[in-house]
Every structure is written in C-alpha cells, then in structure tokens.
Amino acid sequence: MTGTTAGAAPEATRRPPRGRGTELGLTVLAVLLPVYGYCAVGLAKNGTLPPGAAGYGAGLGAFALLAHLVVRRRAPYADPLLLPIAVLLNGLGLVLLFRLDLETPDHRAAPAQLVWSTVGIALFLVVLLLLRDHRVLRRYAHLSVLTALALMLAPVFFPAVNGARIWIRAGGLSLQPGEFAKVLLAVFFAAHLAAGQQALVHTGRRFGPLRLPTGRVLGPVLTVWLLSVTVLVLERDLGTSLLFFGLFVVLLYAATGRIGWIAAGLLLASAGAWLVGRYEPHVHARITEWLHPFASIEAGEGPGQLAQSLFAFGAGGVTGTGLGLGHSVLIGFAAKSDFILATVGEELGLAGLSALLLLYALLVERAYRAGLGLRDAFGRLLATAFAAVLALQVFVIAGGVTGLIPLTGMPMPFLAQGGSSVVTNWVIVALLVRMSDSARRPRTAADATADATTDTTADTTADTAAAEKTAPGPVPATTAKSAPESAPAPRPLAAHAEPDAP
Description:
19 helices; two-stranded antiparallel sheet; mainly alpha
C-alpha cells in the first residue's frame, strides 16, 4: 500500500504542460512571415527594401511579445495557437494593404489599419487583465443587448456610403457599429439560451421534426434577432443581417442538439434571400452580377468587380504571380475591403489561398475546442457563437469573391481594411483565450464537484422558472412531465468534458 501511494503521488501533483513555449515560437514565426512579405513587396515594386521594414518588424514583434507575456501571466493554460494565428492574419493583412497602397498613393489604408491594429491589441490586453472569469459576462446580458441595438440603430442618422447606412462618420473618424454589436449579441444569445436550455428541449409543441419552444422561453431571443435584422435590412447591411441569422440558428442547434433547427434555418434563409433579391434593387443588382459576371464585358462596358476578381484568381494559378506583381487593384475601390482575397489568390496563388483558409479553419476549430472543454453552458455557447461568427464571415466573403454565392459586404477577419473589424476580432480572440484557459486548466476533485454543483443548481433554477412560466396550470410534483430525469436533453455541448491536451 505504501508503494502504491508513493507511486501515485507524482501523478497527482504533476503539472501538465501549458504550451507557452510553443506559443512563443509560433508567435515569432507569425511576426517573421509578414516582415518577409513586407520586404518582398518592396523588392518586387521598387527593387529595394522598404524604408520602414525594420520599424514595422520591431513594432509588430513588440506588440506580439507583449501579448504573449500577458497571456503567459494571466491565462497560462490558454490554447497556444490562438494568439499566433491572430498575429499572423493581422500581419498579412497589413502587408496586403501596404502592397495595394503602392498602386493608390492618394488613398493609403495601411497606416490607419496599423493604428486600429494597435488599438485592437491594446483591448486584447485589457480584456485579459480585467476579465478573470468569462462567466462574469453573463450578468450583463441585458445591458449587452440594449447597447447592441443602440449601436445598430445609430448609422440611420448618418449619410449612406455605397448604398448602405452602416457607418458612423465624425470628422476623419469612421466606425462600423455592427462589428461591435455582433460580440454583444453573442453574449446575450448565449446567456439567455444557457438559462433556458432544458426548457428549450422539453417544453413547447411539436411541429414536424421540430419542437417549438414556448414564447416565454424563445420569445426574447427571437424578438431581439428580428429587431436587429430589421434595422440592418433598412440600412442595407445585408451581410451582417445574414451573419446574425446564422448565429441565431447555430446557437439554437447548439443549445438543443436538434438538427431540425439547421434545416429550418436554411429554408428561412433561402426564402428571405429570394424575397430580398426580388424586391430590393441593390441586392437584385448583386444577384444579377453573380448570375452573369461577364455580361458587362459582352455589352462593351468593361468588366465589373466580380469579373475582375475571377480574372485575378485565374491569373494567379497554383503558385501565384508573387507579392507585388499582380493587378488586382483593377478591381476598384473594394480591392482593399470586400475583394482583398482576390489579391491573395492572384499573388500567392491557390497554394497561398489554401494556406490562408486553413489558418481560418484552424482558428475556428480551436474556438470550438475551447467550447467543448468548458464546464458551464454559457461558456460553451459563447465560444460556439464566436466560432460560428468567424466561420460564417469567412465563408460568405470567400464565396462571394469567388462567385460561389452572391457578394455581401463584410470585411475578411483581420485581413481587409476596416478598423472596427480588426478591433472586434482582437476582442473575440481575447475572450477565446480566456475561455480556453478555463477549459484547459487542471481541476482538483473538489473543484470539479463545486463546478458540477454550481452548474446543476443554475440549470435547475432556470428550468424550474421556465416550467412555472410555461405550464398552463399547477402540475403535481409526482407527474412524469415535471421530472427532468425522465427525458434527458440531448446536449452535445453540455457534457462536462475534460480539458484537451496541449
């Protein structure tokens, strides 16, 4: 017995690897690759190294190192891939904007993007330093939704830009409030659905393969979603409205485990797209261009933006023309925003484009992994929401510029011009780092018992309140309907999973 106890003690006290050394090495590589790309652009365009190459590398490296040190101190068990991927994507975006700025000297986007990137990294640090537990955000669900609706409504009072009212402009400063609203709405959706997760599954009436929850359970979330989408449609911000709809459907599926919500979401999205595309002139024009991208060429009017984008992808081939040697600037004013992916396809080729999309896929996968490892329903749904936001944005943008689906105006995360977008994405990464630290942190038996007791108590309280609100009358405590044990909910994200290995 003594030998067994002595042999088991080291296993119980052994500290699992944290992955901070791996993160540091990958962060250094994530800084070196954009610096190499920055130098390659200068050599290709002017035959010399850019004069600011050393400063660019030093600045990006200093911010990345500072972020790593804060993660090491405040979130030592966080996923080691999240920060390097964000640094690499942000650095590549700055390189691409610098490359396109050389073709448009009167309209430079890289300096402003660098400032916004600095603000985003600063907020990344603030979130990690001040937010010690992601569950604190659950207390501010109602404040989050009120702030989100106010932000989305604000652009109505400002002039339209390119046919859409999605910007707030004051002097030389411009903001896109919808980018910040998506984080706040994700917090509200996750908090409300986590509170009524059991009621979503066990209450309501069946309608085909779906069990429709009662209005008291689903009503607040559905109302907020309808209000937000209505405002966005009036502002012609159809890309963000599509993003919010996808977020709503994904979280319903994650909370209930019922695939019928995905099917219903696809049907509703198709019907909505048909109606909007038929009766909204701006969207109808985009659908027409998507169906006939070369019609303007045949009419002798020259290629449109989508046609130029397809030409750019075709010219890139497998290996690309090389950084600085393409002609994607011919796409026009949207080359630095909606169509920046065309520059990647032309100058880095199919190989570079595939690598970039794999980076996004890896970022989404790590976000889902963090959610699966968390022990609280709110954290699981919030991580799922952020993963869905990133995945939907990449799919919609990549599908639009390649002609797979009609184009909608949204910025590519970290890559495209857009200060609001890059700041918001850094905040999302900070929250994912915090949640992954909670998911991967080793727990003692006492901690696991306390977590399970707290989670069960919260779920039971929420389910009891929901049952009292939705029941038509008093139900005896001995009936089968009042016993949650008689019909366990399918909770694919509710299992108390152990932290994943580094």
